[in-house]
Amino acid sequence: MATADLLLHPVRFRVVQAFLGDRTLTTTDLRGLLPDVPVATLYRHVGVLADAGLLTVVGERRVRGAAERSYRLVTAAASVDAAAAATMTPEEHRRAFATFVAALLADFDRYAGADDDARLDLARDGVGYRQIGVWATDEELGRLVTDLRAVLAAAAERPPDGARRRRLVTQVFLPG
What we know:
The structure is a single chain. The mean pLDDT is about 90. This protein has helices at about 5, 10-20, 25-35, 40-50, 80-85, 90-110, 120-125, 140-155; strands spanning about 25, 55-65, 65-75. The chain has about 180 residues and is mainly α. It has 8 helices and 3 strands. Strands 1-3-2 form a 3-stranded antiparallel β-sheet. The longest helix is centred in the middle third of the chain and has 23 residues, at about 90-110. Strand 2 and strand 3 (about 65-75) form a beta hairpin. The protein has a domain at about 5-125: Arc Repressor Mutant, subunit A. About 50% of the residues lie in helices and about 10% in strands. The protein is globular, with a radius of gyration of 18 Å.
């Protein structure tokens, strides 16, 4: 199965998202993060991702006689590279983008519905969404993308600590 096919499944997409930020998680941890996914479904998709090399086992311990594995995301394996993207049909790209957008909407829905009695405080939570138009040559856009990747890569390397909260940063570039 190609990486794009692996990632296009909504449950697998969410499992991969759960690992973003250099996290180590067990299936028990994942059940807590994805409580709406049936346990058997979750285990099956974790197995598919591990078999495909997108998740790697980094630890194992005995819990009530059973082996509980800790997994980490193999970041390089969990993205569709330019060569693979170039072989996708327009319909496959539409499906991939629709999955991406649906996951983004679900993430915001979970955030907005986390405490229905509380008023959202986007500033406090560091939540923002906006779209701007920029005028750029192909070369200028290339530099912009390179610069953003460098900034985000540096931020992604910071380890979790007591003060840091995991944040999801999403970017989309489209011709206007």
